[in-house]
């Protein structure tokens, strides 16, 4: 069978794959193929980041309006216009049409190839009956898929996953959400506001958002409960039964009621709902990818070095970026890795040395920023206090309520909290967390401080504008203990 040759072959057309291909050929005559079996643009564009934020933004706007004199009187009697919110969501996802993404790929010289790819040899990828060969590199950017635990009756009940929640077409009146992480908390937020009357979170652990500072999960839980969401901590799902199951399509209620058997929290062991959303983690999409053909396990995350080169494969030709390598399951981190990876591929193709930090992915080692768009928002970067201490870092921790003029002006019921984790030896910030309305816009300043290792003495001269929520930076610096430093 005749083969087609490209300089770079990227498997997976999400943001990480797109960026890896674009950076690898930028400013050159190199060629790239982007292989995608679903939609070019990937999970983020159609089933995750974009639709979820399009659904959450109206919730935030309405919440602010309800606590703003002169506005609240006009909106208090009304909720969201669900039809309009969903229509706006569909605009951002282009109604699941990826033609604009394909046009972009064509415009930068990337060939889009439709189909499922499998590695069949060194620098060789097979897509259907087509054999592709890479002169320089093959990049894995296949991401992850939602995990559904193999519990009695659960998979047979056709529960919702994150794709159903973000592409909701029919809002269930009674909803159970299995999980207490980012997807669970965000989905519970928008589905409740869109009309789910009874929302129950089944959380195996003792807190929401367990990877953040404890106060962040506590504040999100408090607000969810205030809005009528039932949170059951220590609750372990045992089984599900749905006699009248029906494959009605993504985002629609999948048949009749679901009866869940739940243990561990001392509440009613039987819970009946109209739909169950499983938000219990992600699984790397590596099954069937042919990794065994190059001596790697045929499932699980793919381990890479800081050049994003896959370890355990000779020749520096196989790379992995984004969720599939398990380093930081966030779109912006996948795109960051892709930029580094593309630059590495280009340098190696041109025989240039990999000198300089541009060729090393370092930000996903303890410098990762993330925003959880719940009510209130949670924005964090770097290490939590417990993570820093576990790593042996001698830290000071300062935490203050966000009680500044800018916050008070933004809405009447503003409440928030901020904290810094400070390395005593270097007097630099290694972690920061902000909770409150609009704090997503605070985290990049913290990210610059963490990545740049900016001394706190220097931060005294980074004057926050008045009146903004950023004034909290001054309050944090003022709260820094001085004894013993």
Q: What does this molecule look like?
A:
Belongs to the class-I pyridine nucleotide-disulfide oxidoreductase family. InterPro entries: Class-I_Pyr_Nuc-Dis_Oxidored (IPR050151), FAD/NAD-bd_sf (IPR036188), FAD/NAD-binding_dom (IPR023753), FAD/NAD-linked_Rdtase_dimer_sf (IPR016156), Pyr_nuc-diS_OxRdtase (IPR001100), Pyr_nucl-diS_OxRdtase_dimer (IPR004099). The chain starts with a strand and ends in a 7-residue tail after the last helix. With 485 residues, it is α/β, with parallel strands linked by helices. The longest helix has 19 residues, at 331-349. Helix 9 (214-226) links the parallel strand 9 (198-203) and strand 10. The chain has 4 domains: 3-41 and 98-145 and 283-359, FAD/NAD(P)-binding domain (3-Layer(bba) Sandwich); 50-90, no CATH class; 155-280, FAD/NAD(P)-binding domain; 376-478, FAD/NAD-linked reductase, C-terminal dimerisation domain (Enolase-like, domain 1, 2-Layer Sandwich), CATH 3.30.390.30. It is built from 15 helices and 21 strands.
